[in-house]
Specification:
Bound molecules: flavin-adenine dinucleotide
Mean pLDDT: 96
Structural class: alpha/beta
Strand content: 15-25%
Number of helices: 16
Largest sheet: 6 strands, mixed
Distance between the termini: 34 Å
Strand order of the largest sheet: 3-2-1-4-19-18
Radius of gyration: 23 Å
Helix content: 25-40%
Shape: globular
Low-confidence stretches: none
Length: 436
């Protein structure tokens, strides 16, 4: 019997579990640990609350969880409640699928001012992540600046722009919905160091900006490259750029009845964030492209802004005893192998890029390597050993059945137009699970 521990119950964790099941059938036992009492990682806490169809992938993970040889063990933080070395004593292979939960900072002066947030915290706030539920962003200034030209920037812009009615069917948490109701934001500026051809935004997310009830995108046509150059782009990127082109031609008459504009400010590199205790503005330098890189032109300007959200990437949380690549912000690994018996998968192994589906080949790839390395297993105690340790230490862990109770309570608490009202505090989750 092979005993496998997977740390992290996001997509990478679940695809790894699925791959192990396919590989060994009944001859493997898999324990999936998560520091939170609830599973699914960024499917619950990252994917936008108004994109419920994407969150439906969790049904596939649930199927994996409900099989005999897979267990979800929530509310256990590896590296704190149990060390990596201890886990390695219990299991033949330990796979770190811990994602990349920390914001990558810009390193700018003023980044620590009040009302400047990274996207992990801001997205975590509106998605009810217990770590960020108390964020308390101030939305009373007329201008918000979003730094970054990826889909997360678009998610954040869209969430800031939507009316309460437009959140029907979403699972945005009540505290965010109530705060957004009081928002005075009229202008959302999306800053990108490079130009329209260099965006990492997909057509679906861009297209949604043109459909908003009270907001309208704006783009300076002068920032667009010659139309003929679009032919060189990959088809999906071309589609995104075509959407940007359409934003530049929206008639002023159409904008007249929109209260919010979402401005794409390309060739704009943030230099510093200014304010006295709290953000009041952001200083920006114009750039030009040279060999696909943004070079400063020396021309600067300031945008008055009361809220800044930096959406420029994430990094993995280091875990004591695990080699870490500081620059790349992920565990040091060779195609998923970290040390003998220790592996990684998903964002923890390759950094924060790609879609949910990109984590699937990671999971299957790492199980192939584990198969080469562990043979039939070394007779380790696995889950039984963990349970004994948990009892000894008083670790109150949450099973998948407990999670189903939490899920049921969240469904029962839902607003009329929402699938669930998430618990945003760990204690509430534990109580809903029927634990102390
Ligand atoms: C804002 C945002 C929106 C996104 N929207 C989309 C989208 O619409 N469509 C799409 O395809 N992709 C989207 N993605 C990308 C997608 O969410 C990721 O590809 C995917 O979640 C990465 O999977 P992962 O398992 O590596 O990490 P995560 O999903 O982050 O899972 C990591 C898990 O590990 C747990 N963990 C961390 N440290 C520990 C520890 N020490 N001990 C125990 N557990 C731990 C965490 O609690 C978490 O549950 C989005 C990402 C973000 C940030």
């Amino acid at each position: 019997m092979r005993q496998i521990a997977i740390v992290g119950s996001g997509p990478a964790g679940y695809y790894t579990a699925e791959a192990a099941q396919k590989q060994w059938g009944d001859d493997v036992r898999i324990d999936i640990f998560d520091r939170l009492p609830v599973p699914y990682g960024l499917v619950r806490f990252g994917v936008a609350p108004d994109h419920q169809s994407i969150k439906a992938v969790s049904r596939r993970y649930e199927k994996t969880s409900l099989s005999e040889n897979v267990r979800f063990i929530g509310n256990v933080m590896i590296g704190k409640d149990i060390s990596i070395a201890e886990l390695q004593d219990l299991y033949d292979a330990v796979v770190l699928a811990t994602g990349a939960p920390n914001d990558r900072k810009l390193g700018l002066e003023g980044e620590d001012l009040k009302n400047v947030f990274g996207s992990a915290s801001f997205v975590g706030w509106y998605n009810g992540h217990p770590q960020f539920a108390a964020l308390d962003p101030d939305l009373s200034h007329r201008t918000a600046v979003i730094v970054g030209n990826g889909n997360v920037a678009l998610d954040v812009a869209r969430i800031l722009a939507k009316t309460r009615a437009e959140f029907a069917g979403s699972d945005i948490v009540a505290h965010a919905l109530d705060r957004l109701d009081t928002s005075k934001i009229e202008r959302i500026v999306i800053l990108g160091r490079r130009g329209p051809h260099q965006i990492a935004m997909t057509p679906k997310e861009l297209g949604e900006l043109a459909e908003l009830e009270r907001a309208c995108p704006r783009l300076d046509a002068a920032d667009l490259p010659e139309e003929g150059e679009d032919a060189l782009l990959e088809p999906r990127q071309r589609k995104s750029v075509t959407l940007l082109r359409s934003f530049a031609t929206i008639p002023e008459a159409h904008r007249a009845d929109k209260q919010i504009e979402i401005v794409f400010d390309f060739f704009a590199s943030p230099k510093s964030i200014t304010g006295d205790g709290k953000v009041q503005g952001i200083e920006v330098e114009r750039t030009e492209l040279k060999d696909n890189r943004a070079l400063g032109t020396g021309e600067t300007y300031t945008i008055d802004a009361g809220l800044v959200i930096v959406c420029t990437g994430y990094q993995t949380s280091p875990i004591p005893g695990v080699p870490f690549e500081e620059n790349a912000g992920r565990f040091a690994n060779d195609e998923g192998r970290i040390l003998p018996g220790l592996y990684c998968s998903g964002w923890a192994s390759r950094g924060p890029s790609g879609t949910i589906g990109t984590n699937k080949p990671d999971g299957f790839g790492i199980i192939g390597k584990i198969k080469e390395d562990i043979g039939n297993g070394a007779g380790k105690s696995g889950g039984e050993g963990f349970e004994a340790m948990a009892k000894e230490r008083g670790i109150e862990f949450v099973s998948f059945r407990d999670w189903k109770k939490i899920e049921e309570a969240e469904g029962a608490n839902a607003r009329a137009d929402s699938p669930r009202e998430k618990f945003v505090r760990v204690e509430e989750m534990i109580a809903a699970a029927g634990k102390n």
